[in-house]
Amino acid sequence: MIDAHVRTRYAPSPTGVPHVGNTRTALFDYLLAKKYGGEFILRIEDTDQDRFVPGSTEKIYQICDLLGLVRDEDPVSGGAYGSYVQSERLEIYQKYAQLLVDIDAAYPCFCSEERLKSLHEKDKFAKYDRLCRKLSKEEVQKKILAGEQYVLRVKFPEAGFTTWHDLVQGKLSLPNNECDDKVLMKTSGIPTYHLAVVIDDHLMKISHVLRGVEWMVSTPVQLFLFEALGWEPPIFAHVPLLLGPDRSKLAKRHGAKSVLGYVDDGYLPEAIDNFLFYLGFSYKDNSELLTLDQMIDIFDEKRIQRQNAIFDIQRLNYLNSQWIKKMPTEDLFLRLNAFIPSEWNDEKVKQILILVKERMFTLRDFSPAAEYFFTAPAVNLQSVLDQSGHTEDETKAWFKTAISVINKLIVLPTPPVIARSESDAAIHPGNSFSSENLHLELAKAQVTSGFTPKEAFMSLRVAISGRSVTPPLFDCMAILGKEETLKRLSSVFS
């Protein structure tokens, strides 16, 4: 239970489309804030202009909007602690960087790129050797007056330990000699992550910092800066890594991509939220379908797992299929529009959707499943005979009987082509062209045909669809309509 007012932040860098692990952390940030009636803030950390990718910021917003992660403060809507874009806060960082120098918590470093490179060539794991830390104030001033370029480095303790309580990982302690004097301000006057994040988290009154466990090693430097500036640090919560099923680092070969990639592949945002929620959160049933509001109710920071989470694309497929089944047809149809040809008839699409949604894993599954309703397949006579198990003449006679039965059924002006309740069935007269009457009349004809039900109806199925597996045959005929059904049956032996 958290008593303090909660303010969390999602602070991505616009260096590309955020990966799924980054978005999982954003979801946890949102849930923690909303669980305790707090604020969820979006901050754009764009100080690394060399890695900036145009369009990335817009994609960050798009992902948050798709997943329902509504911001209380962000660069667009603003807030009391803006700007929420780091590149617009440079004067603030420079002010505090100078303060750190003044209080002897940071120092100028004049080492050239060539010297630093040579250190790493000798030992690729070598930390900065703190050469410039040994310079006197007079030597520093002389170099500055001579116009030598410099960066600012943190004057991190060389001995001892940094200890803190992590909301997820528990008590942690790292030896200070494993950290080096990180660069805080570049020669250009642009801050690095280590400085900017500390200043922003304090000035924006961030209470909890949720981030991936890979960032844990940067915590000692940040805690040192908070202490040096006399500020209360936020509570850190380092959430587990996402690994592939083979326990290796999550990669594209495991099916990992950005949220936008999943949406383009036909996954519902609701299913993605659900899937991300279960990646690192301990819940009694990780196949239960949960809305975002339900996740807020369930969320408990004590149940975030310490162990790495396994990313299983089959779990996402399952959750997505269940959300597709659960979603009302009208709502699902609206989501489907981007995945179907514009010329397909809307009402027919909705009727087909009722039939095929039970078999869909993604929205992209619909078009292949529905294509034969709109384009007559090329049906090979032999494939029909293979299903009938009878001679060509016997099968032709059965088709002639089926065509005669269908011809006698009357097309009503506006009947529901598929009955889904007794009230629907009741408005179909006994001689109307409907799935119920097709079933009834063709079943009667089959009894005296010499064909088993499987032989009779599988041969008709292949004839109208070109497939041996479809939704119920008579529903398919009803959606195709009388004219198209007769046309396809007649063409087999023409």
Automatic annotation (TrEMBL):
Pfam family, one: tRNA-synt_1c
InterPro entries: aa-tRNA-synth_I_cd-bd (IPR045462), aa-tRNA-synth_I_codon-bd_sub2 (IPR020751), aa-tRNA-synth_I_CS (IPR001412), aa_tRNA-synth_I_cd-bd_sf (IPR008925), Glu-tRNA-ligase_bac/mito (IPR004527), Glu/Gln-tRNA-synth (IPR000924), Glu/Gln-tRNA-synth_Ib_cat-dom (IPR020058), GluQ/Sye (IPR049940)
Biological process terms in GO annotation: glutamyl-tRNA aminoacylation
UniProt subcellular location: Cytoplasm
Leader sequence residues: none
SUPFAM superfamilies associated with the record: An anticodon-binding domain of class I aminoacyl-tRNA synthetases, Nucleotidylyl transferase
Motif 'HIGH' region boundaries: 12-22
EC numbers for this chain: 6.1.1.17
Keywords: Aminoacyl-tRNA synthetase, ATP-binding, Cytoplasm, Ligase, Nucleotide-binding, Protein biosynthesis
Record function comment: Catalyzes the attachment of glutamate to tRNA(Glu) in a two-step reaction: glutamate is first activated by ATP to form Glu-AMP and then transferred to the acceptor end of tRNA(Glu).
Protein family membership: Belongs to the class-I aminoacyl-tRNA synthetase family. Glutamate--tRNA ligase type 1 subfamily.
NCBIfam families: gltX_bact
Protein name: Glutamate--tRNA ligase
Organism encoding this protein: Candidatus Collierbacteria bacterium GW2011_GWC2_44_18
